[in-house]
Each structure stands twice: as structure tokens, then as C-alpha cells.
Amino acid sequence: MPLVILLYVVAYLDRANVGFAKLRMAQDLGFSEEVFGFGIGIFFIGYLILEIPGALLVERWSARKWFARILITWGILSAATALVETPAQFYWTRFLLGVAEAGFFPGIIVYFTHWFPMQERARAMSGFIVGIPLSLALGAPLSGALLHVDWLGWHGWQWLFVVEGLPAVALGVVTLFYLTDRPRDAKWLSAAEREYLEGVLAAEAAAKESAQKYTVGQALRTRNVWLLAMGIFAANMGGYALSFWLPTTVKNLSGGSDTATLLYSGLFYACGLIGVLYAGFAADRTGNRKGICIAGLCATGTFLALSAIPGQSFPWAMAWLLLTGVTAYSWPSPFWALPTMALTASAAAVSIGLINIFANLAGYFGNHLIGWIKVRGATDSTCLFVLAGWYLAGGLIVSFVQVKPAPPVLSKD
Q1: pLDDT, tens digit, 9 for 90 and up, residues 74-122
Q2: Residue 239: Cβ within 10 Å count
């Protein structure tokens, strides 16, 4: 888990640091809000290409080798963003970065089914997803410091991409040697531990097979799969755009410096750590993954809408944003436990890949939409109201998903 969390910290920072770099990059290169919106969004189109194949490769081949390939290629491409000079170069670099990183997130979800029984999977996911707010909470002040660097004739935003991109290459090499594919390969477990864990996971898989055996084709025709796909599409129309545009919005609301803006942004993501950890614990403790997911989505939409009320002071708006930060990262870990609760291994792998395709389509459309409406005169309050509406729509759609609650984790006391 520590290695996987570290990988996701680096992954998400390399994906989202363009939002931090934008504070200076846009001015130096003369890029409009619409150029940035399209460039940020096109990452997700590249990401779509290997979604389903990536999840299946983890299920049927090797998570260790697949993740190592992903890390090395995305680290090189993230660092190469420092060389961008034109909108076309920006678009191509972001697109290829998406191709390079494709399959990582759905692959991790499948990988966890090889290690964690159902009752512990939401907590495992929350431990993994904690990498998102942790990455951005640490990355915001780091990026703020790098923006002021002026070495060898390069601007600070160029060094930001290099310094934050190259660690992924090193971690790719580490992953190739240290990540363990399955419990049976773990030399750091005793023979009894390996046998016990493999037995528990095999029994769980057999129970799902006997209860309702889905083929891959049947999974792709299942109502729940498409509801989950539509639900996360709506949620991520709000979520991804909020992550990328938050620094710009906070800067406009506060009127402060770039450094202050990124410190405020870092505080938002630090609040997200609370929501991630609590949601994973509560989901496994109660077994009610669906209810906790819906509550997180609806609370996020509500707090975000309150932050957008015109005329309030910046401290009030920031207070609502911090509450948004707490809830905005509380829903993904219980959400991603839902597909694995009812489907067999290969069907779940394909379904997760399909659902994540829609998650990333939302990344494209959401960011492009915000850039487009900002160029046409939309205020920051209007943009926040739009994003809040998408979160609420996501909660409504997920409420129609039919999944039996998992058994709660019983206390050992």
C-alpha cells in the first residue's frame, strides 16, 4: 500500500500540475482560457485508448510490469511539457501524457481485488485515493515555490514540470523490482499467510461465480454498469474541472499573489484527506458503500454552491470551499468498491475500464466547458454553480444503482 499510494501521489501531481503552472504559463506563452481548457481536457481523450486493455492486462498478465511501463513513459512526457511553446505542442503533449498514463487507475482497482477481500476493499481504496488530496496538498506549495525559480534561462513553470515529472521515471524502475503481483508471489509473507489470503480471495470469487456469473459481454449490457458510468461522468464533470481550475478561481476570489493562492489551494486539498480517510473507514464499518458515496456527492454539490453565492466575503467563500474539500474526496473510494461487489473478475475488469472511460470523458468535457464559458464572460460564481450541479446530478444517478450492502467489518473487541 505505501508504494501504491506513492505512485498515485506522483501520478496525480503530474496530471494536475498544469493547473498550478497555468498561473505563469498562460502569461508567458499567451494561451487563452479556452486553449488551457482544451489542453487540460485532451489529456483524458488520450487516456481513453488503453482503459479496458489496461485493466485486463493487470487481471491476466502483470500489474508490476504494466505499472512500470506507465510510470516511465508518463514521467518523461510530463517533464517534456517544459518544452511547449505553441498551443498545438501543448495539445499533443497533454494527449500523449494521457495515453502514457492510461490504464493506471482501473488497473489499480483490479490489482486490489488480488489482495483485499471485499470487506476491506473500500478502506484499501480510501488509502489509495488519499493520494489525490495528498498529492495536491503537497504539490500546491511545492509548485508555488518552483514558479519563482529562474535557472539556466528557464521559467519557473518549466522547472515545475521537470522537477515533478522525473520522479515518476525513477519510481517506474522501483516498481519493476518491488511491486508484488499476487499474494502467492509475496516472499515477505509466510507460507501460511499466502495460503490463507489466496484461499479467502478464491472463495469470494467462487461465491460470486455461483451466485451470478457474468460474461464480459453481459457485464457491458448490465444496468448497474451503465448507471455507474453515467454517475461518475456527472460527478467528474464537476470534480476534474474543480481540481484544474481551483487555483485560478481562488486567485480571482482572493485577489492575492500566486504564492498565497497555491497555499489556499493546498489547504483545500489537505481538508480532502479527512474525507477520504473517514469515508473508507465508514464504508467498511457499515457496509453501506452506496449511501456514503451518494452523501459525499450531494454534500459536495451543496457546499460548492454555497461558496458561489455572489457578494459574500472571501473568508466565507473560502470556508465553504474548505468544507467542499472535505466532502469532494469522500465519495470515490466507496464508489469504486461498487463494481467489484457483483461482477466476476474479468467482467469486473472490463466494467471498471468502461466506467473509467466515462470518468475520463468527463475530464475532457468538463474542463473544455469551463474554458469555453469563461472566454464568453462567465463569472467564477457561475462556473462554481455549474460544477455544483454536476455533483448533485452524480449523486442522483448513483442512487438508482442496485447493489446489496456488503457485510460490515465486525469489531475484534
Answers
A1: 889 889 888 988 999 999 998 988 888 877 877 887 788 888 887 777 6
A2: 26
Rounded to whole angstroms, the Cα distance separating 288 from 296 reads: 13
Its pTM stands at 0.68
With 0-12 / 13-18 / 19 or more C-beta atoms within 10 angstroms meaning exposed / middle / buried, residue 164 is: buried
Cell of 272: 480532502
Q: Comparing C-alpha atoms, which of 97, 124, 119 is closest to residue 108?
A: 124
Written as nine digits, the cell of 211 is 451466485
Q: Which one, of 249, 250, 242, 296, lies nearest residue 274 by Cα?
A: 296
Question: Cβ neighbours of residue 365 under 8 Å, at least 6 residues apart?
Answer: 41, 237
301-314 residue pLDDT tens: 999 999 999 888 88
Helices 87-101, 2-29: inter-axial angle, 10-degree rounding:
170
Is 299:285 a contact under the CB 8 Å cutoff? no
Cα–Cα dist 132/16, whole Å: 10
95, 5 contact by CB (below 8 A) = no
Query: pLDDT: is 31 or 343 the higher one?
Result: 31
Kindly report, residue by residue over 257-295, the tens digit of the pLDDT.
777 887 888 888 888 888 887 887 777 777 788 899 999
Domains of the chain: 2-398 (1.20.1250.20)
Output DSSP code: residue 331.
Answer: S
Q: What would the grid cell of residue 240 be? A: 476534474
Q: How far apart are CA 22 and CA 31, in angstroms?
A: 9
C-alpha cell at 172: 517506474
